[in-house]
């Protein structure tokens, strides 16, 4: 494997050690959407097993949201998981039907995300996992911070580690030190082509606006992302 994947593994290790994300005996369910972020996370987390120093297991799970009449083709995901020795399971859901056909949501992202989380958590428990790993990277964190600030008038972000008492599951985000561009480069190095989500409103959300904002400011100031990471950590927002 090349330098990009090794670099991502190093960032994962740093984040996992700093936030104590992994303990001996953990069984980690990686939520794999089919996009570049979650696939890179699953592969890097699996490879990190070799030298992390604590034994843990990695399992990957994909949810087909049912946005289209035909099921999503997760063949590229199955292939890369098999190549890396990662157990993999696909769950078919009716999220798309509920969100768009039954509820006819005008702002569907919140309900869709909530339903995805619930099904993923149930799948993790079914598979005997005590942790769920999500592929959110540093750009996602910065975008979330600004969405909360400008959209809701509050200073908040998702947490690198959070415990869900109702499900007795711990959510971890091992890629919080990696930028989106670093993840893209790693996916390309792996030869992975992302599976299209099939979401009817993909690319038209507030998240997309924030993505453009972060990109613009990073072009003007190459240290922008690292400054934001430092600000999140120094302010101790949401356990950063």
Mean pLDDT: 91
**CATH-assigned homologous superfamily:** HUPs
Low-confidence stretches: none
- Which class best fits the helix and strand makeup? alpha/beta
User: What's the N-to-C terminus distance?
Assistant: 31 Å
- Helix fraction, binned, reads 40-55%
Can you tell me the CATH class?
Answer: Alpha Beta
What CATH architecture would you give? 3-Layer(aba) Sandwich
Adjacency order of strands in the biggest sheet: 3-2-1-4-6-5
SSE pattern: HEHEHEHHEHEEHHH
**CATH topology category name:** Rossmann fold
Summarize the structure.
Helix content is 49%, strand content 13%. It is of the alpha/beta class and 240 residues long.
Overall description:
There is one protein chain. With 240 residues, this protein is of the alpha/beta class. The chain has a single domain (3-239), classed as HUPs (Rossmann fold). 49% of the residues lie in helices and 13% in strands. The protein is built from 9 helices and 6 strands. The protein has a 6-stranded mixed sheet with strand order 3-2-1-4-6-5, sandwiched between helices. Helix 2 (36-48) crosses helix 7 (180-190) and helix 6 (138-152) crosses helix 8. The protein is globular and about 45 Å long.
């Amino acid at each position: 494997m090349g330098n990009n994947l090794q670099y991502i593994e190093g960032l994962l290790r740093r984040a996992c050690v700093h936030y104590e994300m992994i303990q001996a005996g953990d069984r980690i369910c990686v939520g794999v959407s089919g996009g570049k972020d979650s696939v890179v996370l699953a592969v890097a987390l699996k490879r990190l097993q070799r030298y992390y120093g604590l034994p843990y297991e990695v399992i990957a799970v994909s949810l087909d949201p049912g946005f289209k009449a035909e099921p999503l083709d997760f063949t590229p995901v199955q292939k890369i998981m098999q190549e890396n020795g990662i157990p993999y399971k696909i769950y078919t859901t009716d999220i798309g039907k509920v969100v768009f056909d039954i509820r006819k949501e005008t702002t569907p992202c919140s309900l869709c995300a909530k339903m995805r989380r619930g099904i993923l958590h149930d799948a993790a428990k079914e598979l005997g996992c005590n942790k769920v790993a999500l592929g959110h990277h540093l750009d996602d964190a910065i975008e979330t911070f600004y969405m909360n600030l400008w959209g809701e008038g509050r200073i908040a972000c998702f947490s690198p580690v959070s415990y869900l008492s109702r499900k007795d599951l711990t959510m971890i985000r091992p890629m919080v030190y990696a930028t989106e561009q670093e993840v893209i480069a790693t996916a390309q190095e792996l030869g992975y082509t992302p599976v299209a989500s099939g979401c009817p409103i993909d690319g038209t959300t507030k998240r997309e606006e924030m993505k453009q904002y972060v990109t613009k400011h990073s072009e003007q100031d190459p240290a922008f992302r690292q400054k934001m990471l430092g600000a999140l950590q120094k302010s101790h927002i949401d356990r950063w």
